[in-house]
Design brief:
Order of helices and strands of chain B: HHHHHHHHHHHHHH
Distance between the termini of chain A: 41 Å
Oligomer: heterodimer
Radius of gyration of chain A: 24 Å
Structural class of chain A: mainly alpha
Number of helices of chain A: 14
Number of helices of chain B: 14
Largest interface: A-B, 93 and 94 residues
Number of strands of chain A: 0
């Protein structure tokens, strides 16, 4: 009897714990969602019921004090370019690392891995000076280059894990049948590692979209400034307008949520480069 | 089998160039610059070779020593909280129920929120006048009502860590659930048959079996926590005073605010060494797993 009761209490506590987790995880997002639709006065209260408004979203684009439209364009162009240039290069390199033997391969792989452990400020120092000389500061191209330096090593490592897991025989059969190296990669390996390529694409896009430090230091105007840094420009004399910031935050967050959820089966293993499945 | 050499170079070339540009070049450049006196305000080219002077300067610089202490405190708080909370979440969510599946799906969302935005969100919620988190604390824990979260040096550091814990602990939990799933249920059943209670099973059976993955995740968290930067800009600005001025932010101040490139490079290298110590153990335990 008493054992049954403790069991009930325990499963009750378990539910409470799970609900606690749920609120901890979702509350900040929920609060931003709510604030984005509040008017200026309601944003500074903790009201749950209020007259919703879309005003904050229109205010982001009316140029007073700030117009977000060019920033959205910058974000999209920078992230898309990083994906379009970075992912194919990473897949090619991952294939070569996985399938060929050559001198210095292990050393190169160490550099691929270590690129992810470098503090971004250290990476940025030389580029900041070079870009200053070449006039690449405050340009989209400059930021795309910087984003490639972070995303390619990560993507190589991630995709390599997927290729390593494939049996060699399939490719050898294709080569024996007269395919060239590139045909083999394109028509035999690629379809088999498609999940890996998709995961690499999503992580590259999300990484570039959410990147802050490089953009923060290298952009000084709307020429290249992505949305992430635009949030800082929302600052007004009397403080941060939280309702507008929340609206901008939503525009930044929602597409990333969709991307993250689309690969949720691979999210954890992808992030840890397959170390944790 | 001998495969085409040209194909090899074409496949490997561009990505390797970018990778080396991303690691070898900055590492070499920062090391070379760290031995020089180079203030961008005075000169566009590096000045005198001054040996280890930038490094000795760092260890006499109280602001650097402060940033080192802040960083280590931050790493300790942030990593401990996310591992403990992650383990707690994993144990609660381990069973396959519809509620757990739903919560596990939602759990990847915080990580998709960019760190800079996480800082803003929490700054908003912590505002002592109208912040939602502050209001909740005021109601649930009235004795904490007077705390000015971001104006108090200790709380500011803890809250900075909370932003990262919020993003990471759900993910840590998902990694641990992956680890828990690989534990053969017969092992825990056998322990239960031998008379062990749930508490003993957790400490004596589950935790030891989980320890390789806990070690791996801890090292990964240390590496990322050492890099803390974005939230400092959007949430605390290094303050109050210099209570949240972590090393990466201090490098940024010297390099890109004061344009003291030589000194910033030396500081960056010290941070890099800290990261590589953690990374070394991470890679070693990765290889040990295989």
């Amino acid at each position: 009897m008493s054992k049954n009761l403790t069991k009930r209490i325990l499963s009750g506590l378990r539910i409470v714990g799970i609900l606690f987790i749920f609120y901890f995880v979702t509350f900040p997002i929920f609060w931003m969602l709510l604030t984005a639709f509040k008017n200026n006065r309601d944003a500074y209260s903790t009201k749950l019921i209020f007259q919703p408004t879309l005003n904050n979203f229109t205010l982001l684009f009316d140029g007073n004090p700030y117009n977000f439209a060019p920033l959205i364009t910058n974000s999209i162009i920078i992230s898309l370019s990083t994906v379009i240039i970075g992912v194919p290069l990473a897949v090619m390199a991952a294939f070569a690392f996985s399938r060929y033997k050559f001198r210095g391969k292990n050393l190169l792989l160490i550099f691929v891995l270590s690129a992810q452990f470098l503090p971004a400020t250290v990476v940025l120092l030389p580029y900041f000076i070079q870009f200053r000389n070449f006039g690449l500061l405050d340009t989209r191209i400059g930021l795309i280059i910087m984003h490639l330096t972070i995303s390619i090593p990560f993507a190589i490592w991630l995709v390599k894990g997927f290729i390593d897991a494939l049996p060699l025989e399939i490719e050898q059969a294709a080569l024996v049948d007269g395919c060239t190296e590139f045909q083999t990669l394109r028509y035999v390996t690629m379809p088999l590692i498609m999940p890996g390529v998709v995961v690499a694409t999503v992580f590259t896009f999300v990484g570039s979209w959410n990147e802050f430090l490089f953009a923060f230091i290298m952009t000084t105007s709307d020429n290249a400034r992505p949305m992430m840094v635009g949030l800082l420009a929302l600052n007004e004399i009397d403080g941060i307008p939280w309702e507008k910031l929340s609206a901008a935050g939503l525009i930044i967050m929602i597409p990333m949520f969709i991307l993250a959820l689309s690969i949720r089966r691979y999210f954890v293993s992808g992030l840890t480069m397959g170390a944790v499945k | 089998m001998e495969r085409g050499k040209t194909a090899k170079f074409l496949l490997l070339g561009p990505a390797v160039v970018i990778t080396l540009a991303a690691s070898l070049y900055p590492m070499f450049f920062a090391l070379a610059t760290s031995f020089r006196d180079w203030r961008l305000a005075r000169s566009l080219v590096p000045q005198d070779f001054i040996g280890l002077a930038n490094y000795t300067r760092a260890f006499q610089d109280e602001r650097f020593l402060n940033s080192l202490v802040v960083t280590l405190q931050y790493v300790l708080i942030s990593v401990t909280m996310s591992i403990v909370l992650g383990l707690f979440m994993a144990l609660l969510l381990q069973q396959q129920t519809w509620l757990n599946t739903f919560v596990k799906t939602v759990m990847i969302l915080p990580f998709a929120v960019s760190p800079a935005l996480r800082g803003f969100t929490w700054k908003f919620m912590l505002n002592p006048q109208y912040g939602a988190f502050d209001k909740i604390v005021d109601t649930v824990l009235p004795f904490m009502a007077d705390i000015q979260w971001l104006a108090n040096p200790v709380w500011a550091l803890i809250m900075l860590a909370i932003t990262e814990v919020w993003g990471w602990s759900p993910l840590v939990a998902l990694m641990f659930i992956g680890g828990l799933d690989t534990i053969n249920p017969e092992v825990t059943e056998a322990a239960a048959l031998d008379g062990a209670n749930e508490w003993q099973i957790f400490w004596r059976v589950t935790l030891p079996l989980l320890s390789p993955i806990i070690l791996l995740v801890t090292l990964l968290r240390i590496i990322f926590s050492l890099k803390i930067f974005d939230q400092i800009v959007t949430m605390t600005g290094g303050g109050p005073g210099d209570a949240t001025q972590a090393l990466n932010y201090f490098v940024y101040l010297n390099g890109f605010r004061f344009f003291d490139l030589g000194y910033a490079s030396a500081l960056g290298y010290i941070l890099l060494l800290l990261m590589f110590i953690a990374a070394f153990f991470y890679v070693r335990s990765l290889i040990g797993e295989e």
